[in-house]
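Troubleshooting entry. The earlier prediction with guanosine-5'-triphosphate gave an output that would not parse, so I re-checked the input for stray whitespace and re-submitted. Clean input:
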Amino acid sequence: MTIQWFPGHMTKARRQIEDKLKLIDVVIELLDARVPLSSRNPMVDEILKGKPRLVLLNKTDLADPQVTAQWVKYFAEQGLPALPIDAATGTATKEILPRVKQLWADKIERQLSKGINPRAVRALIVGIPNVGKSTLINQLAGKKIAATGDKPGVTKGQQWIKVGTEMDLLDTPGILWPKFEDQLVGQRLAATGAIKEELLHLDEIALFVVRYMVEHYGAALQERFGVTDLPEDMENVHEVVKVMEAIGRKRGAIVSGGKVDLDKASLIIIRDLRAGKMGRISLEKPQ
Ligand SMILES: Nc1nc2c(ncn2[C@@H]2O[C@H](COP(=O)(O)OP(=O)(O)OP(=O)(O)O)[C@@H](O)[C@H]2O)c(=O)[nH]1
Ligand SMILES: [Mg+2]
């Protein structure tokens, strides 16, 4: 399956960001800690041309802590210090303002030396749909100002939000790129919830998830669903489907005649993964 994705408001979002760029001091690039590189929009570098940047790895509560540590190291080696956070509960989000100010320190310094009271630093939050941009803004603002939701495409327009007196944040709709060159990237983003479900074949995404789980988190899969006899040969689709069927049977996803309802089983697998019910799972590792 090739996931194609052409929603008009994504193109519009890109244009709107380009229009606002001259007002922006610092860019906060929000990535999904479970799939950091796959959730990195290749357009961002091109659009944001050399603006000071802070990389945040969000949803670390759902990601494998060991893998997140590897990613932090990976980004540091690229000269991009990345801060792991959990925007929903606010873990480490207090470190964001000092880091943003640090990126803007020279400018603040210059204003002070001219006797000007430094204005609030203006930060733009960019990230793919559903990565947690609006949640982060609410967390930083200490109140619910931006609409959030457990599906991609919640934020439709741009909105400036004040964080105390020192920072103004611009919330934007998530931007996805029009076509995934790498099928694996599309599958990871589908599994973690960046792509509208109506556009997906859920069984293919669940197949990808189960295959990855057997290969990397077999024990967690067994514990969650009580499935035994995990296949050795994960390249064999039939073997993977058998695991999906076993999960469906355990969870009562049965149609009349006793056959497993594979669509329902797929939904259960995907929902459980996204809710962290299988434990803390990362779907991408450095290299
Ligand atoms: N577990 C977990 N969930 C999070 C975290 N941050 C955000 N979420 C959830 O992710 C979902 C999407 O959050 P939003 O803030 O609406 O995402 P967004 O990036 O603004 O999405 P769009 O506006 O659609 O582009 C919501 O259900 C949030 O509660 C996090 O750190 N951990
Ligand atoms: Mg939003």
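This one parsed fine. The chain has a mean pLDDT of 91.
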